[in-house]
Every structure is written in structure tokens, then in C-alpha cells.
Amino acid sequence: MTAGASPSGSAGSTTVAGSSGEPDITAWAAQIRRGDRRSLARAITAIESTRADHRRTAAALLDALLPHTGGSVRLGITGTPGVGKSTIIDTLGCNLIDAGHRVAVLAVDPSSNRTGGSILGDKTRMASLVLRPEAFIRPSPSGGLTGGVARRTRDVLLACEAAGFDVVIVETMGVGQAETAVAEICDLFLLLVAPGGGDDLQGIKRGVMELADVVAVNKADGPLAGPARHTAADYRHALHMVRPKWAGITTPVLTCSALAGEGLDELWATVVDMHGQLSAAGHLVALRADQAVSQLNAEFGHLLTERLGRSPELTALRHRLDADVRSGVRSPASAAAELVDAAWPEP
Ligand SMILES: Nc1nc2c(ncn2[C@@H]2O[C@H](COP(=O)(O)OP(=O)(O)O)[C@@H](O)[C@H]2O)c(=O)[nH]1
Ligand SMILES: [Mg+2]
Fold it and tell me: Measured from the CB, is residue 125 less than 6 Å from ligand 1?
């Protein structure tokens, strides 16, 4: 299968297909597994592309890479803007690289229609990590991926794993659906909170707390060190009141300072310990399997809709049904049934 020219010879090619039409998937996958960044970047371009041929290429590539995925700690970090997510990833990421890890950072922005701004902001906040050759920082795909952000990010994560990254950190940029998006991708979910806020726990929704695997109160430095300890105690107390995410596993609550670099070793040790517990209990395998099936469902729905859209008759019918549903003369259920019957008549 690995016929002909190696992609390493095609200097300067940054396109998905390379210089000569159909990409050589086997060679491309091998390049990625060797850790070639340009090949990984090309893969991500294909994964994030909206073009059908790019997506088919990306799908074939992912199939080739799949046996070499699964080897990372997939850590999601959420928390309100300004809480210190990027700062913590910068310091923690550098520490991990110093300890011999290879770290990829992906950004997820479910509210995403914005472009460059957030990316630039974040690059400057990870000023140390961007300089490390062992790190790979990938900003959130910009626009045009409505409903598909988590789906694509999961594929990007798999490509990173195949490229040898053993820690993948997913930073959420949006608020609201961010937690759900991260839950569809990551093994573990670190909730970062700021000191203070008192009884209402900073308005963090109960549901978010229930999803967290580890809670860390950041900015525990200077005058905020005391309030941070109080906030941590409040969270420990509050977590006793909510249903535990995993039976028999208590959600740890720590304090840290991303700025001073304090508490980050403990934080990482806690993450690794939690990952080990989930793995030992069989939760990790089940979680990843569920995530894969959930992506299958999303891809299936997406492809079906796209396929229907290629038929002029079905598209016309769809528009008619849309109008009927909108004006209230037709129920959504009966309109959907008519569309499906038109596409696949009952035998
Ligand atoms: N005092 C203090 N400030 C911090 C700490 N971590 C982050 N910050 C500051 O909080 C602001 C927002 O940080 P950033 O990492 O961009 O937050 P993000 O929006 O959650 O990614 C920046 O001005 C940081 O310097 C910390 O541990 N202590
Ligand atoms: Mg940030």
C-alpha cells in the first residue's frame, strides 16, 4: 500500500492532499506517528475542513491512526473566564514537559463564531509553553462548525495521541455548554474556581460541580491565600451534598497558585491518581466507549442530513415542510416522517 513518494520529500506542501491529488494515507499516518508536526498540522486541517473530500481523507487517516490512540491522559479544564485556566496550563504544561511528558493543548469554544481574537489572547497567556518544542498548542477552530466543535476536537485529540502526546489538555473558552462539550472528549474534568464568592459558590451550577472530577481553587497567593482555603472548604462541604460522580470516589478539592507555581505538583498528582482510579474501576474504558458512540451518532445525523441535501427533490420537500412546520399547519413529527418516507420508501 505504501507506494511511491514519501511525503517528507514534498517540501513546502501544506495542503491536505499534498502536491499530487490523492494523499497517501499510510505514509501520512506513519509521519504523524513519528511525531512530524507538519503532518499532524495537515491532519488537523483536514479534520477541521468542511469540504467533503477533506473529511473523507480525514476519516481514512483516523482509521489508520486509531490503533495508536488512547495513550494519553485527556484532561479538560473549565472555569469562568479569568479564573486562570491558560495560566495554569502554561505552568503545568512546562512542568510536565520538564518531567518528560509531551503535552498537547486544545481549545474548545462551543459558543464559537469568533475568530482570531481569543487565539491571540491565549497564545500570549501560554507564553512559556509555546516556546517548548515538546508542546503542541492548537486553538479552537474558528466558525463554521456549529454543533461540530466537540466532534472535531475529539478527532484532533486522537491525532495528537497517535503523534505521541501523552497528556492532552482541553481548555474550554466558552461558558455554558462548555462542560458538556468537554465531557464528550475528556477522561477527567478539572473545575477551576477563584477564591471568595462565599455561600453561593460563585454561582457555579450544581450540575457543573457534579461533573467535576477534581476541583481546584486557583489564585491562592498573597492576600487571597486565606480566602482560597475557605473557598476550598466550602466546596468540600458542597460536594458532600451533591451526588458523587463516581460511586465510592470523593471529588478532591485543592488550592493552588498558577502564577506562583504553587500546588501544581499536588494538582497533577491528584489528576493522575484519579485517572488511575477510574481506569482500575473500568470507568475509563466505558467512558471512552460511550464518547465514541456518541460521536458516531453525531456523525451519522450529520452525514444523513448532508446526503438528503444533495437531492434537489428532497431539498425542495424539506423547504416546504420547514415552512409548514413554521406556520403551524404541520407537526414536526409528521413532517419528519414524510421526509424520511420520501428518502427511503417503506418496502
Ligand atoms: N494572583 C493570581 N492571578 C492569577 C493566577 N492565575 C492567573 N492569574 C491571573 O488571572 C488573569 C486571567 O488568567 P487566564 O489564565 O487568562 O484565565 P482564563 O480566562 O481562565 O484562561 C491573568 O491576569 C492572570 O495573570 C494566580 O494563581 N494568582
Ligand atoms: Mg484562557
Answer: yes
Can you tell me which atom of ligand 1 is nearest the CA of 171? 21
Neighbouring C-beta atoms of residue 301, cutoff 10 Å: 11
**Of ligand 1's atoms, which has the minimum distance to the CA of residue 79?**
20
Would the CB of 174 count as within 6 Å of ligand 1?
no
Domain interval for residue 212: 69-279
What's the pTM?
A: 0.86
Asked if pLDDT for residue 299 goes beyond 90, the answer is no
221 neighbors 262 (Cβ within 8 angstroms)? yes
Specify whether 156 is located in the same domain as 248: yes
Instruction: Decide whether any atom of ligand 1 lies within 6 Å of the 217 Cβ.
Output: no
Rounded to the nearest 10 degrees, what angle do helices 52-65 and 149-162 cross at?
40
Establish whether residue 221 lines the binding site of ligand 1, counting it when its CB lies within 6 angstroms of any ligand atom: yes
Res. 87: pLDDT tops 80 = yes
Kindly state whether residue 9 falls inside one of the protein's structural domains: no
Average pLDDT over residues 16-21: 56
Q: Among the atoms of ligand 1, which is closest to the Cα of residue 192?
A: 20
d(CA 202, CA 88): 20
Alpha-carbon gap, residue 92 to 108, rounded angstroms: 19
